[in-house]
């Protein structure tokens, strides 16, 4: 029986969909590429913004039109946060949330047999649910979710209601899944979670322990997903700096560069504290890249507040900035505040911030000139280049030569010689100065 899966939202959702695919495959389902071919369709939903909910409803409608007779499953954050709304939607046959994913095969089987609509959204999860490793072996970078939930309750965010409280994968399970992924030949593992920096805090562990477990599994490269600033203490940074295989790239979600706005958001740091953290990271990891998420148009944000954010970005020297406009999320405190910013102002500020982000990114790329980097090559595609990422997550292209063969999943030392415009943006151009056989970095 064919099943089609579609994911909306964050990297954690993508990883969970991969795990659900592995779970269903173990029950005899065949994963297909087109909804028209499926007897079962699963949509893993996001609910970070109200506009995201609208996209989810449009996708549900499109999936139902593509396969009128399929069992349509709606799962994920929207269903967990708003179970009654989800159950009232006309398209899904089965509604589940963010917990008890292991029950999906039996719930789907019941729907196939009885063809009755049902809602099976459990209460907010309290323990970390173990699911099978689901990363596609065709990829060269493995993703492992090791933390879920959040205790922060920022005033713009619905996620604690959709994901429950913070909880972490047990250490023994993490070690086992990391070892399994390494045995499958992956060169790089990316640890991810809803509030990743909180990993293990209720068990006396830190995110540095999780990285160390992956290093012990033999990964040449370990990368961290999105982090909250207050989780990177001096002790944690010192421990991370002792793990050579940790990639020196830190995506730290800052949200604003204005203290007044940060306080209104209920964030737990100031701009000065973040800038001090950036200094400590760069001292511990020379050449580290810092990337971030920043929001424009939070309720009450003045032009002076936004100007402070612009200046903050210049001082922080971000390599990349993901800019997005505030969108009121019903069910959060900020959605009902009176000082909502007009959409035109939000967009104008986002455009200015994006222009600055491009300048900062250009300066970051320019700083790589003449350097060397260990590049993990992931694919060949158009225009005759091998493409991969350096440890700091800079994209690197090397021209294909006759007789090169397949470089996918190999790590090679590359000297940066220039830059090249490719689809998806400008990348670093380089030449190989050491083949993988010199250090045995080919996949096993």
Topology readout:
Layout: E1 2-7, H1 11-26, E2 30-31, E3 40-45, H2 50-66, E4 71-76, H3 77-81, H4 83-88, E5 94-95, H5 104-114, E6 118-119, E7 141-148, H6 159-163, E8 167-168, H7 171-183, E9 188-193, H8 207-216, E10 221-224, H9 234-241, E11 249-251, H10 259-265, H11 271-284, E12 289-296, H12 303-316, E13 320-325, H13 343-366, E14 372-381, E15 385-389, E16 395-399, E17 410-422, E18 425-434
Helix pairs in contact: 7-8, 8-9, 12-13
Care to describe what's here?
The radius of gyration is 22 Å and the shape is globular. The strands form 4 sheets. A 6-stranded parallel sheet has the order 2-1-3-4-5-6, with helices on both faces. A 5-stranded mixed β-barrel has the order 14-15-16-18-17. It has a 4-stranded mixed sheet with strand order 8-7-9-10, sandwiched between helices. It has 3 domains: 2-119, Methylthiotransferase, N-terminal domain (Rossmann fold, 3-Layer(aba) Sandwich); 141-364, tm_1862 like domain (pyruvate-formate lyase- activating enzyme), CATH 3.80.30.20; 372-438, OB fold (Dihydrolipoamide Acetyltransferase, E2P), CATH 2.40.50. 34% of the residues lie in helices and 23% in strands. Helix 7 packs parallel to helix 8 (207-216) and helix 12 packs parallel to helix 13 (343-366). The chain has 13 helices and 18 strands. It has helices spanning 11-26, 50-66, 77-81, 83-88, 104-114, 159-163, 171-183, 207-216, 234-241, 259-265, 271-284, 303-316, 343-366, and strands at 2-7, 30-31, 40-45, 71-76, 94-95, 118-119, 141-148, 167-168, 188-193, 221-224, 249-251, 289-296, 320-325, 372-381, 385-389, 395-399, 410-422, 425-434. It is an alpha/beta fold and 444 residues long.
């Amino acid at each position: 029986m064919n099943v089609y899966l579609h994911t909306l939202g964050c990297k954690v959702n993508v990883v969970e969909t991969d795990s659900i695919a592995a779970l269903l495959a173990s029950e005899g389902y065949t994963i297909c590429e087109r909804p028209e071919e499926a007897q079962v369709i699963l949509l893993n939903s996001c609910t970070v913004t109200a506009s995201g909910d609208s996209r989810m409803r449009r996708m549900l409608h499109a999936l139902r039109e593509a396969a009128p007779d399929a069992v349509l499953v709606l799962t994920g954050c929207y269903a967990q946060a708003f179970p009654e709304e989800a159950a009232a939607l006309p398209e899904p046959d089965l509604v589940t949330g963010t917990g008890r994913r292991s029950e999906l095969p039996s719930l789907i089987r019941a729907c196939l047999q009885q063809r009755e609509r049902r809602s099976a959204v459990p209460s907010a999860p309290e323990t970390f649910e173990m699911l099978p490793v689901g990363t596609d072996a065709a990829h060269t970078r493995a993703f492992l979710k090791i933390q879920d939930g959040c205790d922060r309750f920022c005033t713009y965010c619905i996620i604690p209601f959709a994901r429950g409280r913070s909880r972490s994968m047990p250490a023994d399970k993490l070690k086992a899944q990391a070892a399994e992924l390494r045995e499958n030949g992956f060169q790089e593992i990316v640890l991810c979670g809803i509030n990743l920096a909180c990993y293990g805090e209720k068990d006396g562990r830190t995110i540095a322990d999780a990285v160390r477990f992956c290093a012990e599994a033999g990964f040449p490269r370990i990368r961290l997903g999105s982090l909250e600033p207050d989780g990177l203490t001096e002790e944690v940074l010192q421990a991370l700096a002792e793990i050579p295989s940790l990639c020196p790239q830190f995506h730290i979600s800052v949200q604003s560069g204005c203290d007044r706005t940060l306080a209104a958001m209920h964030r737990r740091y100031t701009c000065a504290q973040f800038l001090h953290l950036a200094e400590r990271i760069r001292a511990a990891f020379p050449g580290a890249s810092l990337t971030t998420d920043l929001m424009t148009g939070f309720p009450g944000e003045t032009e002076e507040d936004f100007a402070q954010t612009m200046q903050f970005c210049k001082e922080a020297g971000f390599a990349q900035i993901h800019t997005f406009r505030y969108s009121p999320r019903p069910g959060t405190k900020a959605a009902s505040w009176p000082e909502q910013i007009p959409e035109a102002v939000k967009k104008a500020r986002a455009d200015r911030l994006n222009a600055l982000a491009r300048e900062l990114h250009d300066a970051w790329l320019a700083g790589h000139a003449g350097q060397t980097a260990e590049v993990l090559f992931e694919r060949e595609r158009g225009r005759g280049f091998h493409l991969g990422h350096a440890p700091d997550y800079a994209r690197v292209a090397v021209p294909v030569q006759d007789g090169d063969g397949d470089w996918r999943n190999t790590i090679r030392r590359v000297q940066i010689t220039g830059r090249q415009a490719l689809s998806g943006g400008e990348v670093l151009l380089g030449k190989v100065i050491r083949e993988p056989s010199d250090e045995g970095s080919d996949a096993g």
